[in-house]
Amino acid sequence: MLNAKLATQSNPNHNTIVPLSEQVAFGGRELVIIGGPCSVESRSQMETVATELKAAPVQALRGGVYKPRTSPYAFQGLGDEGLEILSEVRQRHNIPVVTEVMSIGQIEEIVAHADMLQVGSRNMQNFDLLKALGQVKKPILLKRGLAATIEEFVMAAEYILSHGNPHVVLCERGIRSFDTYTRNVLDLGAVVALKQLTHLPVIVDPSHAVGKRELVAPLVRAAVACGADGLIVECHPEPEKSVSDARQALSLEDMVSLVHSLRPVAASVGRVVPEFNSFSQLAAVA
Ligand code: PEP
Ligand code: MN
Q: What's the topology of domain 18-285?
């Protein structure tokens, strides 16, 4: 593996635990499940997502506000207004939120309002961004580049680690291949390899990998079976109406059933799907 020093596994029994909040961490026995829409679209959309996903439960919400779109004419995200919505939902429901950072200039604002910063596939080798994220005191969700080798992926993580931030979670989200039936090809072999090569938590995004909602659930279960530490799955109150990535969005009901269906799979590989999250505990106290 090239010259990675910090990302690679020197002691096979050592796994880095990456904290997301006081109650939630990646890399332990408990899986971390992140759910939510591709894009933050409105206050009421995110309010519904937070309320409905309590039943799953999920441990964190996702929602893009600065969106990397193939076409400059497509919806680019709500920007600062979206971040404000995310921040309000985070506080009201006491749930961690994850959102994508596209440029160095966005880091400060996102750090102030989110619990984890996502580096999208298209920015996996934006080395200046990675170096800047090395100075951040929040965990980074690093997604694999569209056509990145496992080695390039590990070296991208090395950039963040070597610039001072030890809290990196790797995310396999599918790589490009010749077949257009699925949006990308979910590389579960990479999940297993990354767990062996590195000490970092590895999670799986089946949504961007396959691009079709009917293919998501079985791959989520396969990801857990092969050792993933968590999942990030796109879901929406009205999936067909999603402003971005509608074809791959699950309904909120399907997301809740999916989490329930994971319990026996997790148990079979010695992992646990948490029964509670911080916000459902809060509700229980109230
Ligand atoms: C996303 O998570 O919404 C996203 C754009 O993902 P990726 O960078 O993996 O395409
Ligand atoms: Mn998306």
A: TIM Barrel (3.20.20)
